[in-house]
Amino acid sequence: MLEKLLPIIQRFQIEGQASHIAPIEIGHINETYKLTLKNRESDNDFVLQKINTQIFKSPQDVMENITKVGQFLKEKNYPKEILMPIQSVDNQYFIKYKTDYWRLFPFIKNTQTFNEVDTTEKAYQAAFAFGEYGRYLNDFDATALKETIQDFHNTNLRYQQFFEWTKKVKGTRKKKAQKSIDQLFKYRYLVSVIKDIKLPLRVAHNDTKINNILFDKTTQQPVCVIDLDTLMPGTILYDFGDMVRTFTPSLEENSADYDQIFVRKNILKALTEGYIAGWNEELNYLETKLLHYGAQLTIFEQALRFLTDYLAGDPYYKVAYAEHNLVRAKNQICLLDSLVSL
Ligand code: GN1
Ligand code: MG
């Protein structure tokens, strides 16, 4: 594998001899590797990623957003690590090799990620980190960011697309999905709320999953917010929502143990407090009032996305087996039922 990737690695401004490379199984979208370079003094690790251009149509825009925000945070003396890509030999933040686009990040030392939240302390700290990240970007002009995926959190459009697929698809997939389809129809009212409210346009991270925070292995404290591909102008609703979606469940999004899936209230409380504290009074009244609604909307949207992908034959999310997206959709519906009933 190393040999195959060497022509790519050599295009970046790094010193030392590539000595090891291994895939990192993280995320549903990009292809990720951990790379080790040997130097005279030490070993240094990096994260090499192939950008999925089916989904991120303009790698240029993605990398521009990341570097603009990174630069701004640096000037603001943001207290945590800032994820900045390594430049290529021709001073770009990504390279094109054959038909693919690649980028390289330093691997932040002594860190780890978690797929689940096991303590209220972790929920509070991670949510604080996302809130703090937003706060440091408070006076960054969000409109200066490119929309890396158009209509990413346009739940209304997601609903329309879902609805069209429910009409278009016949056969086994439709039959298997029918119960979930009916359940999602009933949650349609969630979309109508958002049409009538006006919230500040902010720099939204848009993928505030628990595994998008690096924790220090020793202190167990968050040290870096990662996965910045979906940095876009947006509202805080979905950032808060994606935390609720991924921090609070009793079981994670791939679990098919449906009757064991619920929102853990103590984690929800801790993350809400952490997020608000991270923003340190910068959120306005309406934003604070709508957090809980944002969580419902986000989980609803995610269920729509998984079910639409299932109906469409899995063009978007990586799947490990035929029913994977259906399972994920059912899982999200259970979670939504639980949240709505709180
Ligand atoms: C995707 O690839 P990953 O896991 O970072 C998706 C998110 C979804 C998530 C569901 C660009 O994120 O929006 O919430 O899967 N990212 C994109 O787990 O679509
Ligand atoms: Mg992501």
Can you walk through the features of this model?
The protein has helices at residues 2-9, 59-75, 120-136, 155-168, 172-186, 189-195, 237-247, 265-279, 285-289, 291-311, 324-340; strands spanning 17-23, 31-38, 43-50, 95-97, 100-106, 111-112, 202-204, 213-216, 222-225, 232-234. By secondary structure, it is α+β, with helices and mostly antiparallel strands. The protein has a five-stranded antiparallel sheet, covered by helices on one side. Strand 2 (31-38) and strand 3 form a beta hairpin. Helix 3 (120-136) runs parallel beside helix 8 (265-279), helix 4 runs parallel beside helix 10 and helix 7 (237-247) runs antiparallel to helix 8. Bound molecules: 2-acetamido-2-deoxy-1-O-phosphono-alpha-D-glucopyranose (GN1) and magnesium ion (MG). 2-acetamido-2-deoxy-1-O-phosphono-alpha-D-glucopyranose (GN1) is lined by residues 27-29, 55, 207, 227, 230, 253, 302.
Arithmetic mean pLDDT: 96
CATH architecture term of the largest domain: Alpha-Beta Complex
Give the topology string: H per helix, E per strand.
Answer: HEEEHEEEHHHHEEEEHHHHH
Strand segment count: 10
Distance between the termini: 49 Å
Going across the biggest sheet, name each strand in turn: 1-2-3-5-4
Structure classification:
alpha+beta
Strand percent estimate: 5-15%
How would you characterize the largest beta sheet? 5 strands, antiparallel
Low-confidence stretches: none
Q: Give the helix proportion (percent range).
A: 40-55%
Shape descriptor = globular
Write the CATH fold name of the largest domain.
Aminoglycoside 3'-phosphotransferase, Chain: A, domain 2
Spatial extent as radius of gyration:
20 Å
Total of DSSP H or I helical runs spanning 4+ residues: 11
CATH class of the largest domain: Alpha Beta
Distinct small molecules bound, one entry per kind:
2-acetamido-2-deoxy-1-O-phosphono-alpha-D-glucopyranose, magnesium ion
Q: So, the CATH homologous superfamily of the largest domain?
A: Aminoglycoside phosphotransferase (APH), C-terminal lobe
The domain tally reads 2
